[in-house]
Write a structure and sequence with these properties.
- By secondary structure, the chain is mainly α.
- It folds into three domains: 1-173, Ankyrin repeat-containing domain (Serine Threonine Protein Phosphatase 5, Tetratricopeptide repeat); 182-244, no CATH class; 256-281.
- It is built from 13 helices and two strands; from the N terminus they run ααααααααααβαβαα.
- Strands 1-2 form a two-stranded antiparallel sheet.
- Helix 1 runs parallel beside helix 3 (45-52), helix 5 (78-84) runs parallel beside helix 7 and helix 7 runs antiparallel to helix 8.
- It starts with a helix and ends with a helix.
- ANK repeats lie at residues 74-106.
- Keywords: ANK repeat, Repeat.
- It comes from Pseudocohnilembus persalinus (Ciliate).
- This is Ankyrin repeat-containing domain.
């Protein structure tokens, strides 16, 4: 049987959690126990079993002399796979069987940091409880925020996550780390005219809502009250293109003008009064 076919059969048996077939293949072809199984998977049998949370196969593969810390072509150890996927039973099993928690993935994070990055609180709590010194390897929360922003992970409130973790607070007593807080409502929202035309076209096709920004964020020449298309869009949507305090300002300006006119009229009347008074005295 060719090497590729053997590895494909081994991969298929692991995906089915078929421990009998896995044992038979490894006993016959022990040289494949630490090899990447397929081009797509690029993971070792133990790494894939840990990824899937298959404790039975992990135990079997260690009995068959799999290297517990071998990372394979992707440089991610079985313990890291289990931690990333939230497979806490497998994480505990591998740690108790001597898995090295100090190894780093290609992004230079150890298993604790990876559990933090992936938002796996219970696993991170287990690791710092089981191996207290590993908590010293945690970096400032901004490090993980910046990494996630670049790599588009799911949202995690890393500041609160790490604060609660270092206090060893049980997950059941923690706040929600995974819901992104809603931005504060805009005070004077207007449609953003800087929207690229490609995004505008796809949004219109999908009947999406236009991007909104604070009026003050736009330069004066892009604010709707100063653009013909801005005014048209506002009127079509039944909105005023002017700032929310526009009419208040108008009223204030009119009041100032009225007061100035009143003072002017008073001066004119006084002059006429003084003139008539002088005439009478003569």
């Amino acid at each position: 049987m060719g090497q590729t076919l053997v590895k494909e059969k081994l991969y298929s048996a692991i995906e089915r959690s078929d421990d009998y077939t896995v044992r038979k293949i490894i006993e016959k072809y022990p040289q494949y126990i630490n090899d990447a199984m397929t081009k797509d998977c690029q993971s070792t049998p133990l790494g894939r079993s840990a990824f899937r949370g298959d404790l039975k196969l992990c135990d079997l593969l260690l009995q068959l002399k799999a290297d517990i810390d071998y990372s394979g072509p992707r440089k991610i150890t079985p313990l890291m796979w289990a931690a990333r996927r939230g497979q806490i039973i497998v994480v505990k099993f591998l740690v108790e069987n001597g898995a090295d928690v100090t190894l780093l993935c290609p992004d230079k994070f150890n298993v604790l940091e990876q559990s933090v990055l992936y938002g796996q609180y219970d696993i991170a709590l287990y690791l710092i409880t089981r191996i207290p010194k590993i908590a010293e390897t945690l970096k400032p929360y901004e490090t993980y925020e910046n990494f996630v922003d670049l790599n588009r992970f799911r949202y995690v409130d890393y500041k609160n996550f790490i604060d609660h973790l270092l206090q060893k607070i049980p997950f059941s007593a923690c706040p929600d780390f995974y819901t992104r807080p809603k931005p504060p409502p805009l005070k004077d929202p207007v449609q953003d005219p800087r929207e690229p035309w490609k995004k505008w076209f796809s949004r219109v096709l999908e009947f999406g809502e236009p991007p909104m920004v604070e009026r003050d964020e736009l330069p004066e020449n892009l604010q709707p009250q100063n653009r013909l298309m801005g005014k048209i869009n506002c009127y079509l949507n039944g909105e005023s293109p002017y700032p929310s305090n526009f009419y208040e300002r108008q009223n204030y300006d009119n009041m100032i003008k009225s007061e100035a006119q009143l003072q002017k009229n008073k001066k004119i009347i006084k002059k006429k009064y003084d003139y008539l008074t002088n005439l009478n005295q003569q």
